[in-house]
Automatic annotation (TrEMBL):
The chain crosses the membrane at residues 12-31, 43-65, 86-109, 115-140, 147-166, 212-230, 242-259, 271-295, 307-326. It holds the Pfam family ArsP_1. The keyword Amino-acid biosynthesis does not apply. This is Permease. Belongs to the UPF0718 family. It is found in: Cell membrane. It is a multi-pass membrane protein. Keywords: Cell membrane, Membrane, Transmembrane, Transmembrane helix.
Amino acid sequence: MIIFEWLNNQLLKMEWLYNLVTLLVQNIFGLDVNSKLGSSIHFFIYDVIKIFILLSVLIFMISYIQSFFPPERTRKILGKFNGISANILAALLGTVTPFCSCSSIPLFIGFTSAGLPIGVTFSFLISSPLVDLASVILLASVFNWKIAIAYVVVGIVLAVIGGSIISKLKLEEYVEPFVYSNKMLEAEQEELTAMNRIGFAKEQVLDIIQKVWLYILIGVGIGAAIHNWIPESVITALLGQDKWYSVLLATFVGIPMYADIFGTLPIAEALVLKGVGLGTALSFMMGVTALSLPSIIMLKKVVKPKLLGIFIGIVTIGILLIGYTFNTFSYLFI
């Protein structure tokens, strides 16, 4: 237990980096880390470096695993299952694909055109941007393992339930006709060598870092501002755990934004430290990652308004229920 705690503190929370940045701020910048300016600079440098280190390592590992599950192979695996078991498997496969909601949509088109039930593809579409293996580690590094595991579990449950409801409603006619005519090429996947997989993983790291670095800097910057410059009384007045509308407000504030969990985590961390409910912070993260406005606009190109509305409604209600549940039982996690 002591060894696990030490590894958790040094490898995930990176206490060594925290102490190093403290020395940097005090001795190089000549600032007191307890002052607003010194604390903001410390928060920014420490979180940026920590997130980029964890992100690079985790995306490399996840991409190596993902190299065994290209879209065609994933589609064939899903095609062997029916009913809720297919929804569960689709949600689980979504956790090993580090895609944002927009990049998941081409896979949704490919899976649907290849004949998979739309409920199964929606389970994948919900799970892929919302939950991935990297989010488990990053959440554990910011909060703790109980919160990280609980977040992943409720994310997968939401994906399974959402996809199952859409399956039961028989909404295939509300997918645009061109999706079904856009047949996926039935090509055999070339077997990759270990070096090919390593090369693929390196490319994925560079590609994802290039896509998210700005959002990370913005997210950490906002987190530093919330943590050190916005009075706790102001934040709790708007999003305090005693406010019944806090989860609702956080969810709908997150929807117009376009980021991923890596950019929203520092904001959620700062909000929780300021007294905002855990469920409220997680609802904000889920709103940003699962219901971002750009992804909704893209999805509107491939499904008709009724199906789009049902999808948004299911995910929104799920996020709200998750947020209020976490707020109610936050004492079990913190």
